[in-house]
Amino acid sequence: IVGSQTPDVEGPVLAREIKRSHEKLPVALIVGHEAREDRRTLGADLIITKPLDMNQVVSEVSRVLISKHLT
Q: Is the pTM of this model over 0.85?
């Protein structure tokens, strides 16, 4: 799970780099509610929007892990 705004690198750039080196590793990107770009464009398997609802985050992350057969 990476944020869209990090001090050294933008989240979408980091997400794409992670997917390039570890293509099977699911990547979730946290974005502001106004930044609802397509997850594939951002390099992520899951987009989590702010404000965070932890129940929804857990549910969505679980769904992605199950779909990738990582649970």
A: no
